[in-house]
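From the methods appendix. Each design record in this collection lists the tokenized structure first, followed by the designed amino acid sequence. Records were kept in a plain field format so they could be parsed without special tools. The example shown here is representative of the layout used throughout.

RECORD:
FOLD TOKENS (268 positions):
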């Protein structure tokens, strides 16, 4: 085509960002019925674990894609060779973001457990009815924990220090996803608040019909916070209390509907 025949020209960058959340919503829609039937955990039912493991992976990938878009506009001597936490520490280096970045480090530990297929040995003791009476875990000899993981796990434990996220791949569950949703949302909103549109803009989400059916979420209210509130509203009461305590989220009544204040809270 001759230059004079070109009518329009555009330049695109290969960013997926929150477009990946549509798949996360598919996973959560399939995991929810299983979670609701199994309030006692561990063990987590395998179908719930598989869907939620995939969801956690995609949430962290979406954040890295989102951060790389910002890096494209403001490189700050960063490249794709730097890991996600290094990028976030550069873009959100102020003291007021340190607690949020610590939470994100714990989410990445949960993600790494799945990504790197960490191997643990588990022993279970049952009664005559095959009800579990006792469980114990130890790292398999072939598992070499990275320093980030070791630093963020409770001593001798299998969960992270503050958010109690699972570091055993087969334990990752719906509650882990709910916590990861909140933390990733907060990081994205912090980047957006600091760097603005278009560098770090977070647009409306695409909500699939099965998510609307499972969670009762109106697709017109397709922003991160409203979608996350829909997920939180389905949690069993002890899990609502735990997330409220650790992530400083308060259940509230909005027009007779359960809502949550503080989902995208960034600064103290």
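DESIGN:
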């Amino acid at each position: 085509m001759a230059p004079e025949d070109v009518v329009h020209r555009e330049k695109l960058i290969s960013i997926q960002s929150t477009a990946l959340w549509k798949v996360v919503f598919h996973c959560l829609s399939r995991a929810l019925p299983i979670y609701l039937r199994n309030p006692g955990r561990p063990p987590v039912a395998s179908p719930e674990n598989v869907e939620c493991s995939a969801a956690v992976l995609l949430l962290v990938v979406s954040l890295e894609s989102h951060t790389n878009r910002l890096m494209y506009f403001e490189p700050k001597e960063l490249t794709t060779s730097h890991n996600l936490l290094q990028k976030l520490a550069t873009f959100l280096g102020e003291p007021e973001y340190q607690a949020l970045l610590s939470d994100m480090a714990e989410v990445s530990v949960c993600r790494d457990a799945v990504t790197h297929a960490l191997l643990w040995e588990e022993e279970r003791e049952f009664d005559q009815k095959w009800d579990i009476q006792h469980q114990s875990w130890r790292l398999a000899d072939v598992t070499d924990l990275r320093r980030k993981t070791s630093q963020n796990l409770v001593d001798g434990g299998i969960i992270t220090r503050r958010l109690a996220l699972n570091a055993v791949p087969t334990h990752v569950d719906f509650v882990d996803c709910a916590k990861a949703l909140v933390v990733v949302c907060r990081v994205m909103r912090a980047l957006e608040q600091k760097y603005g549109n278009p560098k770090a803009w977070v647009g409306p989400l695409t909500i699939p019909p099965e998510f609307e059916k499972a969670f009762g979420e109106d697709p017109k209210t397709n922003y991160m916070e409203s979608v996350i509130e829909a997920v939180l509203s389905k949690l069993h009461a002890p899990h609502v209390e735990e997330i409220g305590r650790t992530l400083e989220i308060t259940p509230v009544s909005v027009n007779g509907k359960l809502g949550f204040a503080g989902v995208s809270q960034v600064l103290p």
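APPENDIX NOTE: Residues 15-117+168-261 form one domain.
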